[in-house]
Amino acid sequence: LRDIVIVVVALVFAALFGLALIPAISDAVVLPEFYELLGIGDAVPWPLLVLRVAVPVVLYVVALLLGRGRPVFARVLLFTTALAVSFALALGIVVLVGAIQPPLG
Amino acid sequence: VSPRPPAEPADDDPDAEALRWAGDEDRGRDTPRLGGSAHEPEPSDADPDDEPVDAPRRSSPGGAATAIFAVVYLALTIGWVLAVQRTSSGTTVFATELLWQFGEFLAIVAAPLWFGATVTLAREARSLVRIGWFALGAGVLIPWPLVLGVLAALST
User: Fold this and answer.
1) What is the pTM (predicted TM-score) of this model?
2) 3-state SS assignment for residue A37
3) Mutation for B interface: A31, A66, A79, A87, most B CBs within 10 A
4) Among A89, B4, B72, B130, which has the minimal tally of Cβ within 10 Å of its Cβ?
5) Contact criterion met (CB < 8 Å) for A81 and B110
6) How many CB atoms lie within 10 A of CB B97?
7) Handedness of CA B124, B125, B128, B133 (dihedral sign)
8) Minimal Cα–Cα distance from A46 to chain B, Å?
9) ipTM of this model?
Protein backbone atom coordinates (compact mmCIF):
# COMPACT_ATOMS: atom_id res chain seq x y z
CA LEU A 1 0.00 0.00 0.00
CA ARG A 2 2.85 2.36 0.87
CA ASP A 3 4.39 1.87 -2.56
CA ILE A 4 1.08 2.69 -4.22
CA VAL A 5 0.76 5.89 -2.18
CA ILE A 6 4.30 6.88 -3.12
CA VAL A 7 3.58 6.37 -6.82
CA VAL A 8 0.29 8.30 -6.58
CA VAL A 9 2.05 11.19 -4.79
CA ALA A 10 4.72 11.27 -7.49
CA LEU A 11 2.09 11.28 -10.25
CA VAL A 12 -0.04 13.99 -8.62
CA PHE A 13 2.98 16.23 -8.24
CA ALA A 14 4.08 15.45 -11.80
CA ALA A 15 0.73 16.87 -12.91
CA LEU A 16 1.19 19.94 -10.69
CA PHE A 17 4.70 20.50 -12.03
CA GLY A 18 3.15 20.17 -15.49
CA LEU A 19 1.04 23.22 -14.63
CA ALA A 20 4.26 25.14 -14.10
CA LEU A 21 5.62 23.79 -17.36
CA ILE A 22 2.69 24.79 -19.58
CA PRO A 23 3.15 28.59 -19.43
CA ALA A 24 6.92 28.15 -19.65
CA ILE A 25 6.66 26.20 -22.92
CA SER A 26 3.97 28.55 -24.15
CA ASP A 27 6.23 31.56 -23.56
CA ALA A 28 9.18 29.82 -25.19
CA VAL A 29 7.08 29.34 -28.32
CA VAL A 30 5.12 32.59 -28.43
CA LEU A 31 7.64 35.14 -27.15
CA PRO A 32 10.15 34.80 -30.04
CA GLU A 33 7.32 35.31 -32.55
CA PHE A 34 6.10 38.30 -30.56
CA TYR A 35 9.60 39.80 -30.43
CA GLU A 36 9.94 39.22 -34.19
CA LEU A 37 6.69 41.06 -34.69
CA LEU A 38 7.96 43.97 -32.64
CA GLY A 39 11.18 44.07 -34.62
CA ILE A 40 13.38 42.97 -31.74
CA GLY A 41 13.76 39.36 -32.82
CA ASP A 42 17.47 39.42 -32.03
CA ALA A 43 16.79 40.22 -28.38
CA VAL A 44 14.93 37.03 -27.48
CA PRO A 45 16.20 36.03 -24.02
CA TRP A 46 16.73 32.39 -24.90
CA PRO A 47 18.72 31.49 -21.76
CA LEU A 48 15.91 32.71 -19.53
CA LEU A 49 13.24 30.99 -21.62
CA VAL A 50 15.14 27.72 -21.52
CA LEU A 51 15.77 28.14 -17.80
CA ARG A 52 12.07 28.65 -17.18
CA VAL A 53 11.28 25.39 -18.95
CA ALA A 54 14.11 23.53 -17.22
CA VAL A 55 13.40 24.69 -13.66
CA PRO A 56 10.20 22.66 -13.02
CA VAL A 57 11.73 19.54 -14.56
CA VAL A 58 14.97 19.83 -12.60
CA LEU A 59 13.20 20.60 -9.32
CA TYR A 60 10.82 17.66 -9.77
CA VAL A 61 13.72 15.29 -10.32
CA VAL A 62 15.64 16.76 -7.36
CA ALA A 63 12.59 16.36 -5.08
CA LEU A 64 12.11 12.81 -6.35
CA LEU A 65 15.74 11.91 -5.62
CA LEU A 66 15.85 13.63 -2.22
CA GLY A 67 12.67 11.84 -1.20
CA ARG A 68 14.02 8.35 -1.88
CA GLY A 69 13.90 6.17 1.22
CA ARG A 70 11.96 8.78 3.18
CA PRO A 71 8.41 8.51 4.55
CA VAL A 72 5.47 9.73 2.50
CA PHE A 73 5.12 12.92 4.54
CA ALA A 74 8.72 13.88 3.79
CA ARG A 75 8.22 13.19 0.09
CA VAL A 76 5.09 15.37 -0.01
CA LEU A 77 6.92 18.13 1.84
CA LEU A 78 9.83 17.97 -0.61
CA PHE A 79 7.54 17.98 -3.67
CA THR A 80 5.47 20.87 -2.30
CA THR A 81 8.58 22.91 -1.52
CA ALA A 82 10.05 22.19 -4.95
CA LEU A 83 6.77 23.15 -6.63
CA ALA A 84 6.60 26.41 -4.70
CA VAL A 85 10.22 27.22 -5.52
CA SER A 86 9.52 26.40 -9.16
CA PHE A 87 6.69 28.96 -9.31
CA ALA A 88 8.74 31.55 -7.40
CA LEU A 89 11.64 31.20 -9.82
CA ALA A 90 9.27 31.33 -12.79
CA LEU A 91 7.81 34.58 -11.47
CA GLY A 92 11.30 36.02 -11.10
CA ILE A 93 12.26 34.94 -14.63
CA VAL A 94 9.09 36.46 -16.12
CA VAL A 95 9.81 39.79 -14.45
CA LEU A 96 13.47 39.61 -15.50
CA VAL A 97 12.49 38.97 -19.12
CA GLY A 98 10.28 42.03 -19.03
CA ALA A 99 13.00 44.10 -17.38
CA ILE A 100 15.65 43.35 -20.00
CA GLN A 101 13.35 43.78 -22.96
CA PRO A 102 14.92 46.41 -25.24
CA PRO A 103 12.97 49.62 -25.88
CA LEU A 104 10.67 49.47 -28.88
CA GLY A 105 10.96 51.67 -31.93
CA VAL B 1 19.07 24.57 85.73
CA SER B 2 19.30 23.61 82.17
CA PRO B 3 16.18 22.75 80.20
CA ARG B 4 15.57 19.11 79.87
CA PRO B 5 16.26 17.75 76.39
CA PRO B 6 13.32 16.19 74.62
CA ALA B 7 13.09 12.57 75.32
CA GLU B 8 14.06 10.29 72.45
CA PRO B 9 11.23 7.95 71.66
CA ALA B 10 12.03 4.40 72.36
CA ASP B 11 12.23 2.09 69.39
CA ASP B 12 9.69 -0.25 70.84
CA ASP B 13 7.17 2.52 71.55
CA PRO B 14 4.23 2.00 69.10
CA ASP B 15 3.22 5.69 69.26
CA ALA B 16 6.69 6.84 68.34
CA GLU B 17 6.91 4.34 65.55
CA ALA B 18 3.67 5.66 64.06
CA LEU B 19 5.24 9.11 63.80
CA ARG B 20 8.20 7.90 61.77
CA TRP B 21 8.54 7.74 58.02
CA ALA B 22 10.59 5.27 56.15
CA GLY B 23 13.98 6.80 55.48
CA ASP B 24 13.83 9.20 58.41
CA GLU B 25 17.04 7.77 59.74
CA ASP B 26 18.97 8.60 56.60
CA ARG B 27 17.55 11.94 55.75
CA GLY B 28 16.59 13.76 58.88
CA ARG B 29 17.85 12.36 62.07
CA ASP B 30 21.07 10.51 61.65
CA THR B 31 22.42 12.93 59.10
CA PRO B 32 22.47 16.72 59.36
CA ARG B 33 19.91 18.66 57.32
CA LEU B 34 22.40 21.36 56.43
CA GLY B 35 25.80 20.88 54.95
CA GLY B 36 28.44 19.79 57.23
CA SER B 37 29.78 16.41 57.81
CA ALA B 38 28.62 12.98 56.92
CA HIS B 39 27.79 13.03 53.22
CA GLU B 40 29.81 16.01 52.14
CA PRO B 41 31.52 15.21 48.85
CA GLU B 42 35.17 14.47 48.99
CA PRO B 43 37.34 17.27 47.72
CA SER B 44 38.78 16.36 44.39
CA ASP B 45 41.59 17.55 42.21
CA ALA B 46 39.19 18.55 39.45
CA ASP B 47 39.28 22.12 38.24
CA PRO B 48 36.36 23.98 39.85
CA ASP B 49 35.70 25.68 36.56
CA ASP B 50 34.96 22.36 34.92
CA GLU B 51 31.32 21.93 33.98
CA PRO B 52 29.47 19.15 35.69
CA VAL B 53 28.48 16.30 33.43
CA ASP B 54 24.77 16.91 33.79
CA ALA B 55 24.94 20.67 33.28
CA PRO B 56 22.40 22.06 30.82
CA ARG B 57 23.70 22.02 27.25
CA ARG B 58 24.59 25.31 25.69
CA SER B 59 22.76 26.28 22.54
CA SER B 60 24.52 24.80 19.54
CA PRO B 61 25.77 26.84 16.58
CA GLY B 62 23.13 25.09 14.51
CA GLY B 63 20.39 26.35 16.81
CA ALA B 64 21.66 29.91 16.58
CA ALA B 65 21.89 29.62 12.79
CA THR B 66 18.32 28.31 12.66
CA ALA B 67 17.15 31.35 14.63
CA ILE B 68 19.05 33.72 12.34
CA PHE B 69 17.73 32.03 9.20
CA ALA B 70 14.21 32.13 10.64
CA VAL B 71 14.46 35.92 10.53
CA VAL B 72 15.95 35.80 7.02
CA TYR B 73 13.15 33.57 5.75
CA LEU B 74 10.54 35.77 7.40
CA ALA B 75 12.03 38.70 5.50
CA LEU B 76 11.96 36.66 2.28
CA THR B 77 8.30 35.81 2.84
CA ILE B 78 7.44 39.48 3.36
CA GLY B 79 9.51 40.27 0.29
CA TRP B 80 7.47 37.85 -1.80
CA VAL B 81 4.20 39.25 -0.42
CA LEU B 82 5.33 42.66 -1.64
CA ALA B 83 6.72 41.23 -4.87
CA VAL B 84 3.46 39.68 -6.03
CA GLN B 85 1.78 43.07 -5.67
CA ARG B 86 4.01 44.27 -8.53
CA THR B 87 3.17 41.50 -10.96
CA SER B 88 0.12 40.65 -12.98
CA SER B 89 -0.74 37.97 -15.49
CA GLY B 90 -1.67 40.59 -18.07
CA THR B 91 -4.60 38.54 -19.26
CA THR B 92 -8.29 38.17 -18.63
CA VAL B 93 -8.39 34.49 -19.52
CA PHE B 94 -9.76 32.77 -16.45
CA ALA B 95 -7.55 29.67 -16.56
CA THR B 96 -4.38 31.70 -17.07
CA GLU B 97 -5.32 34.13 -14.32
CA LEU B 98 -6.13 31.25 -11.98
CA LEU B 99 -2.78 29.61 -12.68
CA TRP B 100 -1.03 32.92 -12.14
CA GLN B 101 -2.73 33.44 -8.78
CA PHE B 102 -1.84 29.89 -7.81
CA GLY B 103 1.77 30.60 -8.74
CA GLU B 104 1.81 33.80 -6.71
CA PHE B 105 0.45 31.98 -3.68
CA LEU B 106 3.10 29.28 -4.01
CA ALA B 107 5.81 31.90 -4.42
CA ILE B 108 4.74 33.47 -1.11
CA VAL B 109 4.75 30.17 0.77
CA ALA B 110 7.98 28.95 -0.84
CA ALA B 111 10.23 30.46 1.83
CA PRO B 112 8.33 29.08 4.83
CA LEU B 113 8.11 25.72 3.10
CA TRP B 114 11.86 25.62 2.45
CA PHE B 115 12.54 26.60 6.07
CA GLY B 116 10.14 23.98 7.40
CA ALA B 117 11.51 21.30 5.09
CA THR B 118 15.08 22.06 6.15
CA VAL B 119 14.22 22.05 9.84
CA THR B 120 12.18 18.86 9.55
CA LEU B 121 14.24 16.80 7.14
CA ALA B 122 17.76 17.94 8.08
CA ARG B 123 17.17 17.66 11.82
CA GLU B 124 19.63 14.83 12.21
CA ALA B 125 22.14 16.31 9.80
CA ARG B 126 25.28 18.15 10.85
CA SER B 127 24.92 21.86 11.56
CA LEU B 128 26.98 22.75 8.51
CA VAL B 129 24.73 20.75 6.20
CA ARG B 130 21.62 22.39 7.64
CA ILE B 131 23.18 25.83 7.32
CA GLY B 132 24.07 24.98 3.73
CA TRP B 133 20.45 24.14 2.91
CA PHE B 134 19.28 27.33 4.61
CA ALA B 135 21.79 29.42 2.66
CA LEU B 136 20.88 27.74 -0.64
CA GLY B 137 17.20 28.46 -0.07
CA ALA B 138 17.88 32.07 0.86
CA GLY B 139 19.81 32.49 -2.38
CA VAL B 140 17.25 30.76 -4.57
CA LEU B 141 14.25 32.53 -3.07
CA ILE B 142 15.35 36.13 -3.50
CA PRO B 143 12.17 38.02 -4.47
CA TRP B 144 13.42 39.21 -7.87
CA PRO B 145 10.21 41.05 -8.82
CA LEU B 146 10.65 43.24 -5.75
CA VAL B 147 14.42 43.64 -6.15
CA LEU B 148 14.13 44.55 -9.83
CA GLY B 149 11.27 46.93 -9.10
CA VAL B 150 13.26 48.69 -6.39
CA LEU B 151 16.35 48.86 -8.62
CA ALA B 152 14.28 50.31 -11.45
CA ALA B 153 12.75 52.88 -9.12
CA LEU B 154 16.18 53.87 -7.83
CA SER B 155 17.66 54.21 -11.32
CA THR B 156 14.95 56.62 -12.51
Assistant:
1) 0.74
2) helix
3) A87
4) B4
5) yes
6) 14
7) negative
8) 19
9) 0.90
